[in-house]
Amino acid sequence: MITYEIKSGWIPGDEENELISEAIGKVIEERESAKAGYFNLPDDSKMIVTEVNAYAASSEPIAKSDTIVVIGVGGTSLGTHAIGGMLRHKYPNAKRMIFFENSDPIGLSEKFSMVQKEKTIFLVVSKSGTTIETMAMFKAAIDYFELDLKNDDRERVIAITDDGSPLCRFADHFGLKTYTIPKNVKGRFSTLSAAGIVPLTLAGYDTNSLLHGASKMIRRFFEGNEEHIALKAAFMAMHARSYPMNLLFGYGDVFVSFNRWYKQLWAESLGKIDRCGNRTGLTPMGQIGTVDQHSSLQLIMHGPADKTITFMKVEDFENDMEIPNVPLEMLPASNIVSGFTFGDLLNMECDAVCEMIFKEDIPADTITFDRLSEENAGEIIVYFQLLTSLVGNMLHIDTYAQPIDEPMERQITKKLEQGKEIK
Amino acid sequence: MITYEIKSGWIPGDEENELISEAIGKVIEERESAKAGYFNLPDDSKMIVTEVNAYAASSEPIAKSDTIVVIGVGGTSLGTHAIGGMLRHKYPNAKRMIFFENSDPIGLSEKFSMVQKEKTIFLVVSKSGTTIETMAMFKAAIDYFELDLKNDDRERVIAITDDGSPLCRFADHFGLKTYTIPKNVKGRFSTLSAAGIVPLTLAGYDTNSLLHGASKMIRRFFEGNEEHIALKAAFMAMHARSYPMNLLFGYGDVFVSFNRWYKQLWAESLGKIDRCGNRTGLTPMGQIGTVDQHSSLQLIMHGPADKTITFMKVEDFENDMEIPNVPLEMLPASNIVSGFTFGDLLNMECDAVCEMIFKEDIPADTITFDRLSEENAGEIIVYFQLLTSLVGNMLHIDTYAQPIDEPMERQITKKLEQGKEIK
Question: Predicted ipTM?
C-alpha cells in the first residue's frame, strides 16, 4: 500500500475543477483512442511474464546464467534500473542485472570486465531499433564476448524492440528470440512493457505482482478513485510559473535510480511548446535523504520559493538494522539514537524536514510506501506516468511527443560524418 | 589542462564590471581575513600527504588493508567520492573506498557485508564531531565488526574532525590517530582538507598532484589570470531571476559523483537570505550524457528558458575503447559508428548537443578536461569553489554560513525524543 498526502492546503476553485475534469477526460480519451498505450501494459504484459517464464524453463543458457545484461539507453533501461533499485535487496538469489547504458569507455570497460559470457543473457533494447549508442554497445559486446549469433550464442541474445524495426529484422534474420514494445508506448512509458518486464522476469523478480500493483492503480484511477493525482497535477500546472521545479526527495538509497527515471519521464514529457506556441514545462530534480537534506533544505527554505517538493519514503524497511547501544566515551549526545533502527532514524529525519517545510507553506506532498514490495513498485511507476499525462493535458502540450529527437539525431549524424572525413 | 569557454556572448557593462571587481575584492578579503580557509588547503594539505604516507609506511593494519571505509555524510564524504569517481579507473591497484554515507538500512547492510575487518581501515569523518547519522553508523560499525578500540583495532580507526570536537576528544581518549579540519573550512569546502586527502592518500591516489593542480588554479586566480570565472559568476548572479537554475551536464559516468558534490556545494552555499532580507540563490541540477541528453535537451529547448547549462567533458579518455567494425545485417545505418571509439562517440554527441544549444542563444559554457588527471581533478574542485564564492559575493549573501543547520538539528532531536517516549 502507498499513501499519498498533499500538504499544500490549496483548494481548487470552479475554474480549476473544470481544468481537472477536462484533463481527466483527455486521459480517458488518450486511452480509448490508443493515442498512448501505457494504460494497458499492466494487463497486457501478464502474457509476456508467462511467455518468458515458459521460455526460460526450456532454455539451457538461461538456466545456466547468473547475469542479465541490458543493452539500452534512456527510457528503455532507466525504468528497469529503477525497479531493480527498489526491489533488488529482496532477491538475494536473483540474477545480477548489469546495464550497458552509456557510450562511456571507462564505465563500459569496467562493466565488460564484470561479465562472463557463459553465465550471461544479453538483452538488446531499442524501441526504434536503430539507437546509435545501443547499436555501438551491441557491436562491442558481439566483438568482446565473441558472440556467435549464428550458432552457439543464438539463445544468449534477446531483442526487445518495435515490431518491424531494423533490430527486429536483424533478430529475425538470425532467429533470435524477440519481444516487441507496442508502437503507441514511448520509451519513458515503456517500463511495464517487454522493455522492463523481460529483463526483470528473467532475473527472477516477481513481475506478476509488479503488474498487479500497477493494474490496480490504473483501475482505481479510471474508476475515479485516485482524485489526489489530478489535484496535485492541477496545482503544479496552474503554478508552473511560480513553481517551475518539482524536487523529488527520496529517503533511502533505494530511490537513486527511481529519481533518474522520474527526471527523464518528467523532462521529456513536459518540456514542450504548448498549443499557443509558448515554451512551457516543469523541471524535475532528484535528491536523496538524508545525504542531501542539509543542502537541499538550506536552498528550499532560504532560496527562492520556486519549487514544489515531493517526499518519498518507506515506512517499514522490514530487514531493518538496529543502531546498537554502544556508548561512545566523550560523545554522550550520540546516545540519543540508541534503541532506534536506521530505518527509524531515516524516517524521523524525513519527518523533521517535512514539518519544517510544511510550516513554511512550501507546497509539498508525501508518498509513503508501507514497504518495498513488487505491488508498490508497479503502482508508483504508473502513478508518476498518470501524473505526467494529467499535467501535460493541463499545460495543453503533447506529452508523448519528443520533437527534439529528429533534429538531434540529424545533428549527431552530421557530427559523425564530419568526424569520418577528418579521419 | 582544463579549457573553459563561455558561450553566452554576454559582454558586461560598467555596472557589471564594477560588480566583478568588487566580488573579486571580497574574495581576496575572505582569504586575507581567514573568513574562509579553503584557499590555503592546496598548499597546507601537502603536509598531510607527507604525514599520512609516513604513518601508512609504519602501520601494519594499513599495509595489510585493501579497503578504506569512509564513515561520513554530506560535505565530508561527497568530495572524496567525486574525486574517486573521476580517477579510480587509473588506479587498478588502489584500495577500494566504500562510503557509509546514509542512514539507510538496505544500503548500509549491503555495504557492511562487502567489508572484511582484517583488511579495512575505518575513517570517521565529522567536522562538528557530533553528526547524528555519522555517529549512528560508527556505532553500528563498532558493533558489527567488533572493533576493539582499546587494543587490537586501535590502528584500524582514524578520526577526521575539528580540533577539540567531541569526536576529537573521543579519539584522544582511545589514542586513535586524528587529523583535523581547519575551523574556517565548511564541509562542502573541505574536500582538499584532511577530510578528502587522508582517505585518498591512504587508498593510494597521487594526492600531491591533486593538490598541485588545485594550488596552481588558486594562484592563477589570485594573480588575476582566470578572469572567466568572475565573468561566468557575474552572468549567473545578474541573471539569477531569469535563469534561476544551472544544469551541470557531465559527459561520462566519471562525473556522476562530481554532480552530487556540485549540487551540495551550490545549494547550501547559494540558497540564502541576502543582505536586504530577500530569499535568493541558484538551483543546481546534475545530468549525465549521453544517458540524459534526449530528455534534457527536450526540456532545455522547448521548456521555459530558465537554465544556464555547463557542459563538462573529457577530450581524451586515454584507455579508450574502439567501437569494432562489426557489420550488423539489416542494420546498415549502424555502420556510421565504426572506426570511432566510445570516447569519440560520447564527445561528438556532446558537441552536437552543444551546437544545438548555442544556436538557440541559451547561455552555456563548456569545461573541457584534456584528460582525467589528478591535477585536473584538483583544479576543477577549486574552480567550482571559487565560482561559488564569487556568485555568493555578487548576490550579497554569506556563502559559508549554513543557518538552517541549527533549527534542523533541533527539529531532528525533538523527533528523536518524541520517538523515545512512544517506545
Answer: 0.96
